[in-house]
Write a structure and sequence with these properties.
Elements lengths: L9 E5 L3 H12 L4 E5 L2 H6 L6 E5 L1 E2 L2 E2 H11 L4 E6 L4 H9 L4 E4 L4 H14 L13 H7 L4 H27 L3 H18 L2 H12 L4 H15 L4
Parallel strand pairs: 1-2, 1-3, 3-6, 6-7
Antiparallel strand pairs: 4-5
């Protein structure tokens, strides 16, 4: 099944809790994906598609997630369907899987776990998500330093030693809604990323620079920094 909207998947998120909506929407938009929110079964049935995936709460104000899935399937069999619930019971999981959900997400969960599950479901359904930018572009770094691997390693080590302070400065500026300071930090960071070959961070820094109030990009930035700074085995 081709993606409903070019190369960016379109996801219908069915959830009535405002806090959950904010978290799930931000995490999904960072895939990246287009997210349409429905607060109940009625809104979900009336939502304009097409959608590549449905992410449905198991318990909704006007019905169950399983009943909603049956109604949605009656008019469209193509999208992959994922359930999300706070119920940790194995019986609930089995019931939802038997109802036709491809997987069951148990809340609370991390943004990374959510994105990995949705990405796997979309790929398994035959969709092709935009390829993720690699964390490190060794070819670019070597090209910038005349192919000297020792220099690349030294520069990358320096880059990582300074990244926590830069990350904190960016997040602090965002928290203060100081777009001027945030853009200045991101501009400098993009240059550093280019020298070190930090491709994924350069990409997210560029996108956040263009949209400094975007909460999903802020979260993606923090997650990318955390991943780069994580100790390697």
């Amino acid at each position: 099944m081709p993606l409903a909207h070019g190369t960016m998947p379109s996801i219908l998120l069915v959830e009535d809790d405002p806090i959950s909506v904010l978290f799930l929407s931000a995490a999904l938009e960072a895939l990246p994906a287009q997210v349409r929110v429905a607060e109940n079964c009625a809104q979900a049935m009336a939502a304009d598609g097409p959608f590549d995936a449905w992410l449905i709460d198991a318990n909704l104000p006007d019905g169950s997630g399983t009943a909603l899935l049956q109604c949605l399937r009656a008019s469209n069999a193509a999208p992959c369907a994922l359930a999300h619930t706070a119920d940790t019971g194995l019986a609930t999981r089995e019931r939802l899987l038997q109802a036709g959900f491809a997987d069951v997400l148990v809340k609370p969960l991390s943004a990374q776990a959510l994105r990995e599950t949705v990405r796997a479901a979309l790929t398994g359904a035959g969709n092709i998500l935009p390829p993720a930018t690699p964390d490190w572009d060794d070819a670019a770094a070597l090209g910038a330093l005349a192919g000297n691997r020792e220099h690349v390693a030294t520069l990358r080590q320096l880059f990582l030693s300074e990244l926590p302070a830069v990350r904190n400065a960016c997040l602090d500026a965002s928290a203060r809604a100081d777009e001027v300071a945030l853009r200045a930090q991101l501009h400098r960071l993009q240059a550093s990323c280019g020298f070190a070959g930090a491709a994924a961070l350069a990409d997210i820094a560029s996108r956040w620079h263009a949209a400094p109030t975007d909460a999903a990009l802020r979260e993606a930035f923090a997650a990318t920094c955390e991943r780069l700074l994580a100790p390697t085995s």
